[in-house]
Amino acid sequence: MAEESDMGPSRSTRTRPSRRAWRWLAALLAVPLLTVATGLPAAAAQAPPGAEELNSRIEPAVVLLGVTWSGYVLYDTADGRQWSDPLESSTTCTGFFVSTTGQIATAGHCVDPDEGRALLIDALLDQQVDRKLLTSAQASSISPGAQQSWQVEGRNTGSPIARTITAVQPSAVTGAALTRPAPAQMLAFQPGAEGDLALLKVETTGAVALPVATADPRSGAPLTAIGFPGTVRAVSDIDRTRASFISGTVASNQVTPQGVATTEIDATINPGMSGGPTVDELGNVLGVNSFYVRDTNGVQASNFVTDTTSLHDWLGAHGVTTLPPAVAPAGDGPPAVPTWVWYAAGAAVLVLALLALAVVVRGRRRPADSGGAAPAWAVPAQRTGETPAPAGTGPAAPPPGSPAPAAAAEPAAPAEPAGLPEPTAETTDPAATGAPDAGTTAPVSTLERPTASWCGACGARAGAGARFCTSCGTAVG
């Protein structure tokens, strides 16, 4: 009885893909995945857009804010102090969406009650001038003292002044979420001297939000200040007013005497633009438009926006999850590759990987002819109960032109079945074996290699001299 050898399968045996083949599959499939992963980082690198593209992307996020203050002022008269008639004063500012659920960032001074108080006192003085009770010069001289000492209250005694905030976007802006005025609720507020930030909320969905940068800009970096200047609105149709985009650069990073970090820019911030965003060349918000300073001649000399990291951290502290900032490509290389190119490349590599795997698996299904496996023309293993081949009968001769098997150290194997002749180290006479006389010694073995026969029942090849088919058991010959 022939025992199964570990030298390889017989010709009629098919093998399943081995662990090595599966390792090939895992390695090849990893290639397209790594290609896509390295090509699509979490914070996608992108080339800076042009000014027109940048403006069209940002404008749907910019909001026009109207703030109305109402109350009463206790002021001085010739007959003593008296309460004014109901007063009302309105201002406009700019804001921008920092989330898709209606959260709006703006400047703190736009909604500061102290600012409202000052506006109501100014409204009273203007009223006195209109009524010819004061001249403009008298009103100007009275104003500093009035701001210090006059009392301002709401409708009820001791109540704060009333504040109403309305948000709207121009209907002509594509992607605008607030084409009709909507009331805004104040969620958080920081006075100008402490950082000049405010967070509002309107009931809307699908708003276009702007990402906020996480690092302070360097001097000389390009930027764009955005907002609704009052001077422009004064000469424009109120229903078709569009935001202004004013380009400039970062002038410096400063700290106020109160210890508040600010960023100086050379783009002009006009009244009405307060609270609007100043963005970098990728559209990331660098700060909120805050204030400007005039020189001794009354010329607007310096403009300031809030600090970048302070804005980012303040919003996060009040529950706002801002969008990740856009990232510029590293170095001065070519523009970033579009996303679809990375997907196409990944798909192409995946196809190549599957083709390579098919070649590997197909190759493993071919008959083993090396590495110690039995050659295709070796004597087939006997079945249990078969009569051994007659003495002196050896394996079939190899096909013409096929190379002789390489000599290799034979591994430990069970004893040869009875009836098979033992090979010897000595050579034989070519005339006795029928081998051609080439004037050299026959290599590898002196065994005779008679012609093989074929099974008439299943068509399988039977070893030379075999009496039974090794595949179906039918008698051969």
UniProtKB/TrEMBL annotation:
SUPFAM superfamilies: Trypsin-like serine proteases (SSF50494). Keywords: Hydrolase, Membrane, Protease, Transmembrane, Transmembrane helix. Residues 365-449 are annotated as: Disordered. One of its GO terms (biological process) is proteolysis. Residues 384-395, 404-443 have a biased composition (Low complexity). The chain crosses the membrane at residues 340-361. It holds the Pfam family Trypsin_2. It comes from the Bacteria. GO terms for molecular function: peptidase activity. This is Serine protease.
